């Protein structure tokens, strides 16, 4: 077994793990990144695509935002559509900020490219098998190229997602979970067709929710609310486009052009929070610690915020020999996580049809959306949450 010694062992090369590694490198702190999949896989898997203003600023100011600046699509608002009519929420007018549409896989490519460019260790197809001794002398055992290896480190960052090995390594009596399963899912597609709108459209319809998004000026990303046990093979391309046109229709004759669908799948909807997010010298980040329904576009942004908070703590530890910020990691992260959960739950609740809803419930949905789009106070609340709430402490990007 070959051994590696580093300061921070990072399990997972998603946005949380890569951003953490990048920020630590800028502060002169060593880390090793282990990723169970190939580089090609992690750079091509399509996930979230909406970056909050704070995430955009962090990427830019930390030196990995050049391609995002060139290729990202800056949006100064979103449209809420219901009752056959669209209503724009103007972020710039209301809160002076915007969001950027730039796929998670693109952020991952930029961060991997930067890490390889400055010669810091990142191991692909290196499956983490076990984390141990995280109350004393942390170790990560992993398999790579048909052999087992070990990373000895000062701290472990568990960035290995909901199904990773870090969170399950914590004894059950030391952790509490909060969870909600939603009684619907999203059927999502990527299609070679220019988006029918230059900004996202969130649509409430009596047949269910629909979302028009995009990845590039030539590629549309669209979603339909469906049953949680829906089978993707039951949805032909023709049926998907037909249902989208029905739900997205307006009294003004909105036209949704179809095109070749090159990816489609079903995404279950759930909320999940782990408390605490730190166990001795093991810290959980991103989907390893929390999941939000995608309606509020918060998942990747919360993961990046976790990396920012942990970096601050590690900088204090290594440069000032103070563990105070590390001790407050859970407190600082969960404050933002629960605000993100609240917003995501609220967006999900007002825009989806729940099973067995009657006409009264339908009218309440419409009244809520009417209030949000016509009250400046309500529109401002949506805008400030969507573009991203400010960080609790200034500095470090």
Describe this structure as you would to a colleague.
The protein has 397 residues and is of the alpha/beta class. It is globular, with a radius of gyration of 21 Å. It is 36% helix and 28% strand. The protein contains twelve helices and 21 strands. The strands form four sheets. Strands 7-6-15-16-17-14-18-21 form an eight-stranded mixed beta sheet. Strands 9-3-2-13-20-19 form a six-stranded mixed beta sheet. It has a domain at 2-75 and 101-178 and 270-353: FAD/NAD(P)-binding domain (3-Layer(bba) Sandwich). It has helices at residues 15-26, 39-44, 53-61, 66-71, 91-95, 104-117, 237-248, 299-320, 324-327, 329-351, 359-374, 376-387, and strands at 2-5, 8-11, 31-34, 50-51, 73-75, 77-82, 85-90, 99-101, 122-123, 127-132, 139-144, 147-152, 155-158, 176-191, 201-203, 210-216, 219-226, 261-275, 278-279, 282-284, 290-291.
Distance between the termini: 39 Å
Largest sheet: 8 strands, mixed
CATH class of the domain at 2-75 and 101-178 and 270-353: Alpha Beta
By helix and strand content, what is the structural category? alpha/beta
What is the subunit organization of this protein?
A: single chain
Question: What general outline do the C-alpha atoms trace?
Answer: globular
CATH superfamily placement of the domain at 2-75 and 101-178 and 270-353: FAD/NAD(P)-binding domain
Strand order of the largest sheet: 7-6-15-16-17-14-18-21
What percentage of amino acids are in beta strands?
Answer: 25-35%
Q: What is the strand tally?
A: 21
Helix content: 25-40%
CATH topology of the domain at 2-75 and 101-178 and 270-353: FAD/NAD(P)-binding domain
Reported CATH architecture of the domain at 2-75 and 101-178 and 270-353: 3-Layer(bba) Sandwich
Q: Radius of gyration, Cα only, in angstroms? A: 21 Å
* Poorly predicted residue ranges: none
List the total number of helices.
12
The overall pLDDT, averaged over residues, is 95
